[in-house]
Structure formats: C-alpha cells, structure tokens
Amino acid sequence: FLVCVVLAAIGVVILEPKLAVRSRRKPPFYQGKIRVLVDGSGTRFIYRTGDSNTLWSGYVRYQETKHLFLLFVSKAMYRAIPKRALSPEQISQLRDILQQRISPAS
After folding, report:
1. Mean predicted confidence (pLDDT) in 47-52
2. 3-state class of 19 per DSSP?
3. Is 5 helix (H, G, I), strand (E, B) or coil?
C-alpha cells in the first residue's frame, strides 16, 4: 500500500506539470489564428471561439522579449503578441503605443 501511495505522489509531481502544458494546447480557444487589434482605447484579441477586449487601464505592465510582446493583465497572466506576425514597422508602432499606454516591466 505504501508503495502505491509513493508512486502516486511521484506521478503527480512528475506528470502534473506536463499535463498542465498539454492542457493549454488542447482547448479550441488557443487554436487557430488570432487577430489583434490595437487602438487608442486598448486591445481586442479575436479568437476562433470569441474575442477579448481590454482597455489600456486593464494592463498592469508589458514586457518585450526577442520574439514577443507580453501584455500583463495581472502579475502572472499575460497576452502574447508574437513579433513574427508583425512587420518591422508594426513592431515599432506597437512598441511606441505600449510605451505611451502601459508601464514597462521593471
């Protein structure tokens, strides 16, 4: 019995993070093309299954990485915009808008 409990505990520790990663890939919400509209009032992410509007005041910070713009709606939750989907001009424009509207990550 003790062996089963130990194996179950090990399975949870080892498998749970992998299952969490897989579970993000499966929901239809995360599949397909995503359109992002940015204007003076905020952003609109349009998914195959619906859309999400966020005013600029709804973002707590942003971060720019080599490949992404991350727009944080809380300390740990963000919306990602991949740079590969943007032209160099669009990257520059988005960077300017984010600098004006949201505090950068420290």
Report:
1. 88
2. helix
3. helix
Distance of CA 56 to the CA centre of its chain: 16
Could you tell me if 61 and 102 are in contact, meaning their C-beta atoms sit under 8 angstroms apart? Answer: yes
pLDDT tens readout for residues 7-40: 343 434 444 444 444 545 556 655 678 889 999 9
Q: Would you list the DSSP string of 3-28? A: HHHHHHHHHHHHHHHHHHHHHHHSSG
**18 touches 25 (CB < 8 A):** no
CA-CA-CA-CA dihedral for 21, 46, 56, 94, to nearest 10: 90
**Summary mean pLDDT of the chain:** 78
The Cα 46–Cα 37 span in angstroms is 8
